[in-house]
Amino acid sequence: MTPTEPDATTPELRKLPRADRLLLAAERAGLLVRLGHAPVMEAIRAELEGRRVTVLAGAPCPPAEEIEAALLARLAAGVPGALRRVINATGVILHTNLGRAPLSPATADAMAAAAEGYSTLEFDLDQGERGDRHHHAAAALCRLTGAEDAVAVNNCAAAVLLSLAALSGARPSGQPPGGASPELPAPGLPEVPAPGLPEVIVSRGQLIEIGGGFRIPDVLRRSGAALVEVGTTNRTYLADVEEALTPRTRALLSVHRSNFRLDGFVTEPTLAELVALARRRDLWVVDDLGSGTLLPTAPYGLAAEPTVSERVASGVDLVCFSGDKLLGGPQAGLIVGRGPAVALVKRHPLLRALRLDKVALAGLSATLASYERGEALRELPIWRAIARPLDELEATARRWLLRTAAVAPRAEVRRGESAVGGGTLPGETLPTWLLALPCPDPAALLAALRRGPVPVVARISDGAVLLDPRTVLDGEEAGLLESLEAALRG
Ligand SMILES: *Cc1c(COP(=O)(O)O)cnc(C)c1O
Question: For 119-159, what is each residue's pLDDT tens digit?
Fold first, then answer.
């Protein structure tokens, strides 16, 4: 509508405080000095814009004092736009939007130590010479997975990209890459080096999108290899793979269907079959395992996720998995497998662009140390969350109920379900107990929780806001209850 048209929301919009009033409030609170003028102005504009949107949507304009208080709380939380700590009450353990795996105190300490000082990142203390940054986590990864060698990069997407880039330049036998595949019939034809790109074969049913619009095939094409899709969405046979082999084929790729399930009329060659075929035809096998786990998931009532050791034992050349999914460590991409394949990865120039930084490397080593001590279940927050006993979850939800009963008389404790999340174990849930807050406008309560002194992220179901104790970490309860009370009163 044009500005001259009368509009019922305009009088409400006029009640919004002016920016200079808010700026003055920030100055009085000492926040202008602490944060600087430009970031404070940006926060003021964001606050006013947010309020404008809600008023235009028909809500009454809150009193100026309330907007001022909200702005000050926003600024007091730190530099606007910087990462903020939140409490995850969604019950989704590996919440990609909330930073996936929270780290153990030992991991966080190791990362802080590496961040604050100098370290042996690429320095050998015994020799007093340059050392190798890639050896730090490698020995532990080999012991824990049975692999011959290992290297850590920035994330699993990088691990897959690098693996394919490195392996598509060579054959396992060391024969020139352009040479024809052994056993390939070439009756009467002269043997010519194959033109075109090296090829990687993958089943159509495994060409997944891993979230944020990020598609595995798009990543893989950047490796410089051509992706050859075989089979159909639900059925791929070993024969489909064999028929697609050409003299340019370098690798067979298996991708874990992390975030969805194919049920029913489904066939796929086993990893063992792919490995046997690859051995006969002088090809590599790369396994993009996605999450990967070092511990079995079945004891917690979850589907049996293949462990990294099982995949390594199947004889594939490289297994790629994430550091911050079921491993429970910092963001990283782990490449483990057979010596010659890892050696090619370590020699590839892309490794320099995709390598892991010292802080993550220190954290990764500390997380792996928990597994080596046999204490991962007790020490790593994500495994603690997975393994939390039901009676403990119920007791926590009941404690929260007691604390909120005065402000939320309709609140109740309910059975519910938590999820592992992070593109792992799709459709699999863990039974839990929830604090349910039925209310007329659950979206508004959810928003108020996000604006609390410590922002709380929760979810809505059937007209109630649900808080799941499973993902609320040790030491976060007081902050959660404070934000909850503030939101319920407001
Ligand atoms: C999650 C996932 C990735 C990407 O892992 P990042 O560590 O986030 O890069 C790749 N492949 C599969 C199968 C995944 O599940």
Answer: 999 999 999 999 998 889 999 999 999 999 999 999 999 99
Ligand 1 atom closest to residue 289's alpha carbon, by position in its atom list = 13
* pTM exceeds 0.85 for this model: yes
Q: How far is the CA of 416 from the centre of ligand 1 (A)?
A: 28
- What single DSSP character describes residue 251? E
Do 318 and 287 contact (CB within 8 A), yes or no? yes
110 C-alpha to ligand 1 centroid (Å) = 25
Residue with CA closest to ligand 1 atom 14: 290
Per domain, the residue ranges of the chain are 11-77, 87-101+383-489, 105-376
Q: Which two tokens stand for residue 161?
A: 């990209």
Which of 162, 199, 111, 136 is CA-nearest to residue 335? 162
Residues 6+ apart with CB under 8 A from 112: none
**Tally of CB atoms within 10 A around 441:** 11
The alpha carbon torsion through 437, 441, 444, 448 (nearest 10 deg) reads -30
pLDDT tens, position by position, 371-383: 999 999 999 999 9
Residue nearest to atom 6 of ligand 1 (CA): 156
What pLDDT, in 10s, does the model give residues 340-383? 999 999 999 999 999 999 999 999 999 999 999 999 999 999 99
Q: Kindly give the distance from the C-alpha atom of residue 192 to the centroid of ligand 1, in angstroms, as a whole number.
A: 38
- 290 C-alpha vs ligand 1 centroid, how far in Å? 4
Domain 105-376 has CATH 3.30.1460.10: no
210 Cβ contact list (under 8 Å, min separation 6)? 157, 216, 258, 259, 290, 423
Contacts of 430 (CB under 8 A, 6+ apart): 300, 301, 302, 386, 417, 418, 419, 420, 470
Ligand 1 pocket, Cβ-based, cut-off 6 angstroms? 155-157, 210, 255-256, 258, 288, 290-291, 322, 333, 423
The CATH number of the structural domain formed by 87-101+383-489 is 3.90.1150.180
pLDDT at 188 over 50: no
* Ligand 1 atom closest to residue 159's alpha carbon, by position in its atom list: 9
* pLDDT surpassing 90 at residue 218: no
